[in-house]
Fold this sequence. Notes:
This protein has 468 residues and is an alpha+beta fold. The chain folds into five domains: 3-167, no CATH class; 177-274, no CATH class; 286-398, no CATH class; 402-434; 435-468. The chain has helices spanning 87-104, 136-140, 146-156, 163-167, 178-185, 190-199, 210-230, 233-239, 253-265, 267-274, 298-304, 310-318, 333-353, 356-366, 377-389, 391-398, 404-433, 440-467; strands spanning 3-4, 19-22, 49-52, 114-118, 123-127, 130-134, 280-283. A hairpin with a 4-residue loop joins strand 4 (114-118) and strand 5. The N and C termini lie far apart (69 Å).
Amino acid sequence: MCLHTHRGHNILSSETFAVGFKRPLPRCSLLCLLTAMTFLNKAPSCVSCVVDKDICPPPTVHAISDYPKYYDALYYPQYHPAVFATAQTFCAWLLKSLVSHCRCCLVCRNPFTGCVPFDGVHIVVTSSDVSLSLPLGVFESAGYHHCAIMHKLSLSSNQVFSFTHTLVQYPPWMFYSEDTIKSRLDAILFATLSESISRVPGLRVVHRTKPNFVAAITHHFLDLHANLIARSMPEVLSDFASVMLPLECDHQFLPLLSAFVENIYGPEVAAVLRRPAPPTYVYHSVGDSMLPWTLLSTDLLVRHLCNIPLASLRDYVHESPLPCRPVVYRRSHPKTSNSLVCHIRAHVLYLQLVGHPVLCDIWLAYSPFTNIFPAHASELITCILEFEYGSAVVQALASDPLTLSERLKFVRREQKVLRVSAAVEQAIEQRNQWPVLVPKHTVAQKSVPMFVAFHVIAISCVETWEYD
């Protein structure tokens, strides 16, 4: 048995045990690590685990890279600063670690197949249409371990999600960081920001520039958020007593909060503040698509957008957030359509894997004043795409504007591509089976031993025949 401590490798070994016992570092010995981490400050895990003896390092001097399974990022984060540097690298590590954990853990036997995105506020772990929104502090804690997440996912699998729970709590857009809010407000025109500043009582800007407007609205919104969070729910609802909602909207907390923010900053600025953050995600496996048109080829989907003018496509692209905006080609309609199709396809993949609760949060961010809730996830994804890319683009992609002759032309083109690829593979296989040319001296050197062996065999056969 191997007993490992982080103060050194004090190893007690026995030949009768095939596993090791890994104990984590004391917290007091690692207070000054992870200074280079920017996204998440992970503390070494204090949860003990049993590991295989073969992956344990020896008590002598050794290289850390030779024992990657022992020096993992969960127990030795100081050796993996790149894992916790960005949201993308952390989500990729967490997904890979969850998949491998379910394969080797004796308790978590259900395989993990899903998506691990970061929505700007929480890490969302999604598996089999069940999602958990976890703050960064859960993963930064020294008591974090994968079994807790898998246990929560198994408990939540039997619960039916409804919109009622979402309508009575603070939405994710109330917890965005200062940088995220500023990046959203940068996309608004100067005149709109100026009008929003004039609506807020007591908010004045000396130097009337766009950066100053963005900073003033951002700080005011953060102060508003802190004021609302610090108070109890009855006190907050008393402030919403004078808020007017549409006739078809129920007096729930989320619609009242959205209307309250809209009365302060105006409809355009409030819509931008509610807009979901650009997702950062990685996925493990993808099942069948909920939208059949996403399975079509990119060339065919580009043809679906040929009837939409280039100016309209540019307007749809400019309405999307800056950090994840697709590329726009000013003079090329096919290139712009191709960029937009690839962007929509990737976003559909994220919406399909992120889970129903996150889909509801995104949809309610775009349409908070409604009582009509889509019943199926495919309808929910279609509604979100229409808000983000425009109904004309989504309807054009979902339709089939090609004639029979054009459709047959695309089918023949795809068949030709398949035939050419099959012919290339066959030619490569035949080339690999051809005899390899060798120099003459190599043939001569190899032929001499063969001739001697043949001569010996012939003499032995003659002697045997004479003996008989």
